[in-house]
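Technical appendix A lists one of the benchmark inputs used to test multi-chain prediction within the project. The record comprises two sequence entries:
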Amino acid sequence: MNRGRIPFYLMVAGLIVAGLLTAWLRHSATEVPFMPGEQKPVWLIEARIDFNALGQETTVRLDLPDEPPGFRLIREQAASPGYGFAVLDDQQNRRAEWTRRQVSGPQTLYYNAQYVPVNPVERSKASEPPQVDDVFWSEPEATAARELLRGATARSTTPASTARELIKLLSPNSPDQNAQLLLVAEPRRSELLVKLLNQAGVAARSVMGLYLEDARRRQTLTPMVELYTEDGWLLINATTAKQGVPENLLLWSRGENAQLDVIGGESSRLSFSMIKQTVPAMALSQVQFQENIFSLLGVYSLPIEEQSMFKLLFLLPLGALVVVFMRVMVGLKTAGTFMPILISLAFLQTSLIPGLISFVLIVGLGLLLRNYLSYLNLLLVARIATLIVLVIFLISILSLVGYRLGFNAGITVTFFPMIIIAWTIERMSILWEEEGAHEVLIQGSGSLLVAVISYLLMSLGIVNHLSFNFPELNLVILALILMMGQYTGYKLSELRRFRSMEQFDNDH
Amino acid sequence: MIISPFKLKRMGMLGMNGRNRDFIGRYNDRRLYPLVDNKLKTKLLAQEHEVATPQLKFVVKEQHEISQIDQSLAKLNGFAIKPAKGSGGKGIWVIVRREGKDFIKSSGAKITLEDIRRHMSNTLAGLYSLGGVSDEVIVEDLIEFDDCFDGFSFEGVPDIRVVVFRGFPVMAMLRLATHASDGKANLHQGAVGVGLDLATGRCLNAVQFGKPVYEHPDTKRSLKEIDVPDWRGLLCLASRCHDMTGLGYVGADIVLDAKRGPELLELNARPGLAIQVANGFGLLPHLRHIESLDHKRYPSAEERVDYVMRAFAAKELL
């Protein structure tokens, strides 16, 4: 390889890398799917609050999930007529708040949220370990707790193993009398575990989780325990001692505050229903990442009219690639270098078969008319201008006839670029006179073949999707075109053209 | 049906992509193209450099001049009408003599002054030019063909194409019109291409439609007898086209006039694919050989021609 070409190959490699990398970054930043029509699961969770209003000022507060691991909030809303609603976001907790000046009787409030499962991100560790809460027991529980802890710490080394030992001791069929005593005093197992862990010098807190199962109603929150280890907060199930956040668990709230506060009401109840939906990944990405830099630089930020223009524009490089390939590598003859692309773009509007029929019909009729024009002995420019006018008439007549006969396709002929067709007819006609009908057929079918191939490529769903959503992939196409521009080998057609050289090949 | 690309490579065949990028792109300066794409410019340049070419009679540049064309033609008996920017021999009319008011074309067809006017009008409007740009009409002297090719060409013009690389003739071919080619000298239309030995101007090999032939298909004259007179002078004429245009890779179309000897008909900035089939070997070895030469040692056309007549002499003739 020539050394002088190294910068060129570096540039080609750079273009390919830049194109693929930008596409990948866009994919990972905005989750625009690489495949069209991709569906993603979304959990629709509905919290229902029932209570009896006492006929006075009523305030209802509900803890909301705050960036739960493994899930991302897409949309939330409350359905509760007559109530003022707001989502309060202080540094501790997100809370929903319903307010009403005066209300009485049974009330039902709804809160809806859509969550999409995501890969859990590494959670940032608290800069310093949280304070261990002070624990107060009254006798005789204090002694029982001390005894229990002594046994547990003796058999463990880390906070997590301490917690596991404690859970084992607190299990319902545990023979340990201290454990039985403590469970009587504090029947909520997770609260008890938090207290014991804090006494053991391990920072711990109770959390409420929601197990997600498709199409469930009247679910309640499950109490869990989070304890602080060297790697940050670790979730542990106070009954089964399972560590880590299960895939289908949504951490609903943290801390000691009650999940539900009802002021001005009584007998309040909180229940959940949930359903698993699937939505197009494309729409999901657009809802979620509107403000992302890639979205701002994407085509979707433009008005619809411009978007549809770009949709065609971004397909053009692929057509150009096909033309370059067919001419440089295959050696196909076409009438006009890039006319096939324009025809294939027209095919995109008309669809293939009606497009082909009307194109061949127009060019054929045009050739007949042009044949007559050559008797008039006109100057060239005037002849082409005449041809343009005639082609317009031809197209209008074809459209009208097609429409009257009930072919909607008849109308779509107007998508063909008029001037290009007139020139094509003129060139074909000259070609006919000079080289004969054979050459016209060769070049005409060559053009149509290239047009059909690029049409077939351009109309692929995935090609449309990629070129529109990842316009940077056109850099890869550019690199391919540049590379083919360097090709000095034989064209496929030359292998045939030079086939008679076989007889001279005698130096084996 | 097709030949393996490795075989082609071994024979040194030059493909279109290789020619366009490695030779035309590298050795032909784009701004020099008008010199060869416009026959009028080529002709004027040739006259300036005293390269022999058929004598220019007059030029028609505007449509209104066509109405008085009969006066300009009055003095001429036989002449050739050419579009200045035509390509591939399109739009060339050769008038061999007059018959009363009518003109007789080389094909024998009888045409009127009105036909000539319409042809000129079409030509000026750009019918034969690339991209349909407006054109000029050249009217030049009729060539009186040397009788050395009698019996080798049917109805048409035998001409010799020499590919000149950096001033060195690297390959030559004689093109003979046949009945199948309708008097035209285009190989793909059925003309016979005769590869010529650079040292002697004798026939190396001949093909028609890609198949070897040993005699002219119409006149049955043996192609072995071809012997181009003043071969060295012809090569020198071709070689000087490089000095004249500055083009590194150029094809010169040369005819032999009975009285004036070799004359340059036109130049071509993109020659050299079919000529390889006629010669039976590829251009690449010769081109690479010339590329590796120290060009300062061969300043004049005569020295370059003497060099190639020595270096590229064929081992065996037909």
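Chain A has a mean pLDDT of 80. The interface with chain B takes residues 328, 331, 377, 379-381, 384, 426, 430, 434, 486-492, 494-505, 507 of chain A (CB under 8 Å). Comparable benchmark entries are summarised in Table A2.
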